[in-house]
Amino acid sequence: MSSRTQPQSAPLTRREIRKAQRAHEPKLRSLQAFASQLARRPADADTGDDAPTVVFSTAGQQPRRRDLRLAEGATAVHSRLTPRSTMLGVLGALALVAPITGVAQYVDHAAAATVGTEKNVLAPLDANAVAVATPETLTEDPVAIARAEAAAAASRAAEREALEKAEAEAAAKKAAEEKAAAEKAAADAARQVVVPLPAGTFRNTSGYGGRNDPLGRGAAYSYHLGTDFAAPRNTPIHAAAAGTVVHAGAGKDGRSSNLVVIEHNIGGETFYTWYVHMYNDGVYVSAGQKVAAGEVIGGVGSNGNSTGNHLHFEVHLADDSTIEPLAWLQQHGAKDVSQL
């Protein structure tokens, strides 16, 4: 059962009440005076109405006691009813006039408030109806509670799914960045070229190309296939670039002494670097070993056809032809090992 609250009119101000009272005061006074006159009027007065009159015969016949009692009773009843009926008529007139003239509005607000606080039979039903319509009571409904919990669970699941998705995307992005960085670092490392001996530890004593053989072996040995870096014995020899050791140990292809040969792939091109004149204890790597640019692979010596401790350094192409080592180092932006 639903209840509707009737809109209440705004209370009148004192000024409006006084104005209305002055406007209707003559009518009220007139009605009140008329009612007072009727209330004070004696029961046996001549009212000018059709009150019953008892007529007795004058033909010398005395009235009977029964006739007198009936006459007295009728007069008494009429005298009692006349003022009351008159007052009821006045009150009825007031009841009709009051709503029309607005007199009903001029009620003491304190009294009205007191009347308004009296309990109504329908008040409990109205209170229940209002309570049912409030959000607080709706939450007490098991179905509403289940729906709210389901909505909250769905919201939490959506938030968790979004968070997991964001974390997965962030992890994937980070992994991709790390992979790209690693690939770039590997590519940079693969392209990275370093000078075989540390700066300040050597001097270039014989370049690539034609020269007079220092051992006096004639024209057959007058073409120098590499460049010589004179340095103290056991000065660290570094791999010129990342690659794979393809030879380590005793000489090959008619070369004397020990040597190390490393294969490199730089920018899609294949190169081989040779390191010659190490002693047996100056070879630090073995065939098949992976080395990084700048990694120590041996120590300077003067083994074989040599006049002193130095590193004989050669650069070979894929077809085993040689090129100028210093130009190759410069072309690939070789750095000192201390800059790695």
TrEMBL record:
Residues 13-28 have a biased composition (Basic and acidic residues). Keywords: Coiled coil, Signal. InterPro entries: Cell_wall_metabolism_enzyme (IPR050570), Dup_hybrid_motif (IPR011055), M23ase_b-sheet_dom (IPR016047). Residues 156-193 form a coiled coil. Residues 1-29 are annotated as: Disordered. One of its GO terms (molecular function) is metalloendopeptidase activity. Residues 223-318 form the M23ase beta-sheet core domain. Residues 1-11 have a biased composition (Polar residues). PANTHER family: L-ALA--D-GLU ENDOPEPTIDASE, PEPTIDASE-RELATED. This is M23 family metallopeptidase. It comes from Georgenia yuyongxinii.
